[in-house]
Amino acid sequence: MNKLTSTNTLVALALAGGVVFGGAALADVDGVLTINGELEIVTKTTPPAHLADNLDEIVSGWVYRAAETQELQMDDFDNPGMLFVDIAQDDWGTVEGTEGKSCATCHDNVEDSMAGVRAVYPKWNDEAEEVRTLAMQINSCRTERMGAEPLKITKGKMARMEALISVQSRGMPMNVAIDGPVQAMWEQGKEMYYTRTGQLELSCANCHEDSYGLHIRSDFLSQGQTNGFPVYRLKNAKLTTAHGRFKGCVRDTRAETYKPGSAAFNALELYVASRGNGLSVEGPSVRN
Amino acid sequence: MKNTPLTLVAAVCAVGVFSGAAMANPVAPGAVAFDEDGAVAISLTGVAGDAVNGAKIMRTKSLGNCISCHEVTALAEFPFHGEIGPNLDSTGDNRNAAEIRGILTNSKNTFPGTMMPAYYKVDGFIRPGNRYTGKAPEGPLDPLLSAQQIEDVVAFLLTLK
């Protein structure tokens, strides 16, 4: 249960001092996330070894959202992202492309075939000898196995397929490999994470490692974790992919962004995902 | 006293040249002289700052957007104030004009590695964009604030005591 106690609220108000902070609604940073009254979600845990010197704790973005936004994620009937999962369930069984196949033709039941998949992506693909994001893997199946058009990387149809696949891993810990053949790409992503870009000269780390738990204007900064992706954003009433979010964050440093689906963003996705190793998969989550 | 007329002429000229240069020709972003602590002693324009406009620049998102990181009680009627940088309520007591001008021009000279952006700098960026479009810039960058806007903010901050 979300324990929205008056003590929490009082503490938050006291911290806010004389000036109004935080786009009004206060976050309940001590809230506990249980979905549908049964699925317990790890929203705070010890960081993976590679981050142990930088962070004491890794924390899901859910923790920093206003109490009423947090609540939307506690019940699938309230979570607007689940509507898109339902549509993707239909997509799953829809024949597309020259081979006359649907996802279900080869993968049967999505509940069984895709359980645990989201938690380990991005992941090395031996045959293709490349790191694949979930989006790349979906498009590879579409183009190479179905003879269908690839889906646009940040568009709704891709986001909802990612949501359908993610929800099969909900509650499982993120566990993205960072060594072996993926290491070089992981290092590239790490370098990007700490590079101060744009005319504002800000890195991901400036906001999401050095300043999480603080307000920047009305935004309450989280650690910028990707365990909740794709996220349903109340702001634009649709699912947002990780690359869509990265693009906005880079743009906000007054920088030239990278393209969603680019090698650079794939590397960044791998690195950022690994920062969340240990947090539960939450997608589709709800954010403002 | 045959020097008198000459001195007068010289004085008039000096004033004329000074203000003329100041209006048309502020110190360019690359030409600002910092002392070893990052302060900038000389006005960027030679024109006194307008504190009222400075307050507006500080709270306006498309201009300084300073309150996104700083709490300023004098601007409390304009939410929302961030918590990344220190409260600026006594900047006028703690800092002189040269220090404030230096912090605004390029905060990194005063606070190495700070998150605060450099407001009067036009090069040395990684992947700079065209404002907030996410696209590549179309030409040389403008500084985040003009020389006179910097002076206006200096004037406002000096009133915070």
Provide the helix percentage of chain B.
Answer: 25-40%
Q: What's the quaternary structure here?
A: heterodimer
Structural category of chain A is alpha+beta
Mind summarizing the main beta sheet of chain B? Answer: none
Unreliable sequence segments of chain A: 1-24
Apparent shape of chain A: globular
User: H/E order of the elements of chain A?
Assistant: HEEEEHHHHEEHHHHEEEEHHE
Query: What is the number of helical segments of chain A per DSSP (H or I, 4+ residues)?
Result: 11
CATH topology of chain B: Cytochrome Bc1 Complex, Chain D, domain 2
End-to-end distance of chain A: 20 Å
Helix count of chain B equals 6
Provide the number of structural domains of chain B: 1
Strand content of chain A: 5-15%
What labels would you give this structure?
heterodimer, A: 288 residues, alpha+beta, 11 helices, 11 strands, disordered N terminus, B: mainly alpha, 6 helices, 37% helix
